[in-house]
């Protein structure tokens, strides 16, 4: 790829459609918890609302999840926050696994002590596409 045509940086944010869907689900679960006359229904709908609210909160607070520039990577997840220079990054790859008949593709960022794994939902794009866009930003001398 021509260095003049490569972007200065690239950021990956969770797909806003899923965040909106989780917010709608949270509102519906809260409504169902309020109008339910069954005590078990109150508990189940409230638990569902709390879980979906967690998804919405992490999608909004931890934005962007991953940023790549000529300086390196910035990882911003609920369990890992790191600024990594390209010298620290061992590998960035899309990993495909088959388990119980289902195909799962994730983006793995391996930087020694830091291993960050991103799904399509958290990146907003397919992991293979994210790996290619990160490779386009990575300076040639850094491996």
Describe this structure in words.
The protein is an alpha+beta fold and 143 residues long. The protein has two domains: 9-13 and 64-142; 16-61. It is 41% helix and 29% strand. The chain has four helices and seven strands; from the N terminus they run βααββββββαα. The protein has helices at residues 16-35, 39-61, 120-123, 127-137, and strands at 9-12, 66-69, 72-76, 81-85, 91-99, 102-111, 114-118. A four-stranded antiparallel sheet has the order 1-2-3-4, with helices on one face. The protein has a three-stranded antiparallel sheet with strand order 5-6-7. A hairpin with a 2-residue loop joins strand 2 and strand 3. The longest helix is centred in the middle third of the chain and has 23 residues, at 39-61. It is elongated, with a radius of gyration of 19 Å.
Q: What is this structure, in a nutshell?
A:
Helices cover 41% and strands 29% of the residues. The protein has 143 residues and is an alpha+beta fold.
């Amino acid at each position: 790829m021509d260095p003049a045509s490569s972007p200065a940086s690239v950021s990956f944010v969770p797909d806003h459609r899923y965040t909106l869907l989780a917010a709608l689900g949270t509102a519906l679960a809260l409504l169902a918890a309020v109008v339910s006359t069954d005590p078990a229904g109150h508990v189940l709908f409230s638990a569902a609302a709390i879980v979906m609210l967690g998804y919405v909160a992490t999608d909004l607070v931890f934005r962007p999840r991953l940023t790549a520039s000529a300086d390196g990577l910035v990882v911003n997840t609920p369990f890992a926050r790191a600024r990594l220079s390209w010298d620290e990054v061992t590998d960035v790859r899309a990993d495909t696994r088959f388990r119980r008949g289902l195909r799962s593709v994730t983006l793995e960022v391996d930087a020694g002590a830091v291993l960050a794994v991103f799904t399509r939902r958290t990146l907003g794009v397919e992991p293979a596409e994210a790996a290619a866009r990160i490779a386009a930003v990575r300076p040639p001398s850094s491996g």
